[in-house]
Amino acid sequence: MLRSEQHERRRAEIVSVVPGWYRPWLHLAVPTCLGLGVMAVALARLARPTALDLLAVPITLLVSFGFEWRAHKYVLHHKAPLLGLIYRRHELMHHVIFTHEDMAMRSGRELWLILMPAYAIVLVFVMVAPFAALVAWLAGGNAAMLMVATSTAFFLGYEWLHMAYHLPADSRLGRMRILRLLRSVHQRHHDPRLMKRWNFNVTLPVFDWICGTLWSPERERARPPPRRSDAPVPRTTSLPS
Questions:
Q1: pTM of the predicted protein model
Q2: Which of 75, 163, 189, 216 is 20–30 Å from 89 (CA)?
Q3: Which residues lie below 8 Å from residue 154, measured CB to CB, with a gap of 6+?
């Protein structure tokens, strides 16, 4: 009982950091509309793509799964130069609010602790643009536009799926069979004992499978105990500034 009361106090403390001007529906709608707009423009610029052009879709998806896995493992759960705020927001706030025993958000304001900042969609485009230019030079405009559309779709999929995992389990989305399965994978990651070592993909566990970090009892027994630096973070850590 004492532990539950402590968690509730900690949860209330973190939620109080959410800005008063925050509007959850805008946080979800603005990046979604911008992303869909980018996808529409990119697809409209296609000119009779060939089968070779279409290879840009699975290649971009594979790279995106790998980027997601690596960023989650090495940035969101480890302090990195210039990226400490991202680590603190994720591990010391998101993982404290949402535990493997209590994954569901309780109000729309908690969406601030789930979604990426609204401007992240712009950062994704800025990051992808130079690679798209390189692909256009090497493989043509169709491949570049498919790369842009696919990478943007991946980002939106990440946001919507992550939100869905943290909806109440009895909600309309929460009851969907595929989302229940994916939520169970993500829920394992929210166990403080497991979060630094297992289930780093949020969308589909592609690179978790490739890299052997998809949790199972057998895999956990086969791995050595975590190093001290990989130990769970105490729940009494102070709030990020």
A1: 0.89
A2: 216
A3: 60, 61, 64, 68, 203
